[in-house]
Amino acid sequence: MAYLADFSTKDQYQATVKRTKRLTPADTQEIREIVLEVDPTFECEVDQGFGVLLEASGEFGNTMHHRLYSVADLPERDNGNPLITMLVKRCEYVDEFNGERYPGVASNYLCDLVAGDKIVITGPHGLPFEVPEDRDTNLILVGMGTGIAPFRAFIKHIYKEVKDWRGKIMLFYGARSGLETLYLNERDGDLTQYYDEDTFSAFQALSPRPEWEDPILLDAIMEERADEILALLSQSNTRIYVAGYETVGEMLDKAFSVILGSEEMWERRKAELKAGKKWAEVIY
Fold first, then answer.
1. Within-domain flag for 192
2. DSSP 130-196
3. What is the Cα 223 distance to its own chain's centre?
4. Which one, of 125, 192, 116, lies nearest residue 159 by Cα?
5. Predicted TM-score (pTM) of this structure
6. DSSP secondary-structure letter at 70?
7. Number of folded domains in the chain?
8. Nearest to 239 by CA among 85, 47, 44
9. Is residue 248 located within the same domain as residue 154?
10. Which of 126, 151, 169 is the C-terminal boundary of a domain?
11. Average pLDDT, stretch 62-73?
12. Domain boundaries, position 47
């Protein structure tokens, strides 16, 4: 797993906010879709990401703040300039020493932008979610929250540009409530257009009581599809891609241990996937 410090800030480009809109209702966590118009020399593909670089006031004076984001849609152009789409959730964090809550630096900066604002981006940076050359490859995609971003671009690329994909694609997407599922709802059902593809299926994992912050039932939803998942895991051409916050790893280990019959069997299979470069994750 790569760390933010591994991504260079040497190559910098100016980007202008083309449009920004909130995808989630006002009484839920704010998640925005932001489209950037970028310098013509900047090229970013569906299996890449980019950084946002800004000055932030640190304990010892001004310092540069760098955050990595996935491309959330197929690259476009407007008057020759590249357009890239990103998802941003307005975040806050709790100081582990004083217990105070503080707004996330990059997320609040980005969520407050309006059309016409200019920012500095870096990259493009490679992500581990490469599109396999073998079109019979099976894919188990697991996205939590804004972790749906790279898989939205990925799935659209496969069905719009690769087209003759023959492997099975299972997308598991976790969010606190149905109102916070992105691109799989009545208002923004971008990915629902692929439901009629024989090779594609998508499953939503929600919290039973989001107002009480009950955990998202990702493991339970996956266990309900145990036979299908087990069938894919028995094949050598199956890959698993994971994107989301840190706790997704614990939920996946729990689910796969149940599906395979024991923690030991899952640890062995997971090690095989990693050794064969068939497991990739972006955890934040």
1. yes
2. PPPS-TT-EEEEEEEGGGHHHHHHHHHHIIIII----S-EEEEEE-SSGGG-SSSSSSS-GGGGGTT
3. 22
4. 192
5. 0.87
6. E
7. 2
8. 47
9. yes
10. 126
11. 84
12. 4-126
